[in-house]
Amino acid sequence: MKTYSPKPSDITRRWWVLDADGLVLGRLASDAARLLRGKHKPIFAPHMDVGDYVVIVNAKNVRLTGNKLDQKRAYRHSGYPGGLRSQTYREYLEARPSEAVRKAVKGMLPHNRLGRSMLDKLKVYDGPEHKHVGQNPQPYKREDITR
Fold first, then answer.
1. What CA–CA distance (Å, rounded) separates 28 from 93?
2. Domain count of the chain?
């Protein structure tokens, strides 16, 4: 039996909406990364982008467990010597909640060109409205896709 490798004509992409209201950041990010990679599909191949589009709404209402709001820090570097900046996740979520969610999902994708192309299919919004109504995205629930 030969190894199956999906062809571009075999790939069908769906749109999913994840409501982050009251969800734990890491669990939300792992579900989004799973959909972006296409691991829920029977034609999954680790060397190809077979995943779906993911729209995350209500990113400002995501939560962290334990003391992570005050102890976990978000780092960024300007590229210059001494350019390392950090802030707590409480400050980060107040200032840019959509970027906090995007950063969590990015860390769960491959760290190469393939992961960057998967991240382009992620759309994150702070509030409940999004501009992808024309694509008819389906609401995602954990029970929809078997693990």
1. 15
2. 1
